[in-house]
UniProtKB/TrEMBL annotation:
UniProt keyword Hydrolase, yes or no: yes
Species in which this protein is naturally found: Niabella yanshanensis
UniProt keyword Metal-binding present: no
Lineage of the species this protein comes from: Bacteria, Pseudomonadati, Bacteroidota, Chitinophagia, Chitinophagales
Keywords: Hydrolase, Signal
Protein name: Alpha/beta hydrolase
InterPro entries assigned to the protein according to its UniProt record, in alphabetical order: AB_hydrolase_1 (IPR000073), AB_hydrolase_fold (IPR029058), AB_hydrolase_sf (IPR050266), Peptidase_S33 (IPR002410)
MF annotations from Gene Ontology: hydrolase activity
Amino acid sequence: MRFFVAALWLLLYGSVNAQVIYSKDYGNPQNPAVIFIHGGPGGNSNLFEGTTAQALADRGFYVVVYDRRGEGRSKDEAATMTFEESFRDLLDIYDQYHLKKAVILAHSFGGIIATLFVQQFPEKVNAFILAGALFAQQETYDHILKCASEHFKNDKTRIAEVLAISRLGKNTADYRKRCYEIAGKMNFFNMPVPTKESKDLREAFEKTVFYTTSVRNQESPVKFYKNEIANNLDNQPVLKSIRKKGIPVYAVYGQDDGIFSAAQLSKLKDIVGENYFQLIENCSHYLFADQREAFIQFVAQKPGN
């Protein structure tokens, strides 16, 4: 009887635990698998899923998207928001979709998580693609604040804001949040010249359930910076070590993604190799929505192979 109760508890717990993580697959499971890792902390996969997942699957890939525990559609008040937790959940995604190996496609903060995952579980990865992904966080924050100082040099209020941000603790959620807020005030996340295709794609997205369910958990960054001691990372040495393990690392970025300096991207190009790196013109941070066809073409061609 005691064994039966314990087994029943484990069954129920496993079922509930599995339901916590939102995920969905697109395409033929027999095709090469791609797992999308969204930004954050506090983000979601909605924009990628609503604009690009099916289109990428139509090019011959088996695409899996999910929202990390405690973020987006994966509501969980007990989420700790640590790297270890995100790794366990990603391994569960592999199991759920019967994947032995996959291409990891990481966007924004997802690049930090994915880089550490690929380092720890190289046997699970066929290739790694950084797509507008963070890789040296403090360099990004320094670049944003330097640009803000120049951009707002004649605005005393904004200059005072920049100074206040620079005085915050560099390993705090507030510092990260306010850096990105001021980046937004400089239109760093906006496509410079929206094309008809990009406008149509965004308008179509706004008519879908993905738009209406695109929620951000504002508590997630607070939890992450409280519970995860490894934050504000420079993963450039890790990327070099991943390449030495024989895993192809690719990088595709918007040429107009203001949160990265030209020097940063030049260093990344040196790490991954010229044939594995691409800048997309007239494209900002959400490159899969700004220039979807160019983005998919890069992923589908896998230059360097």
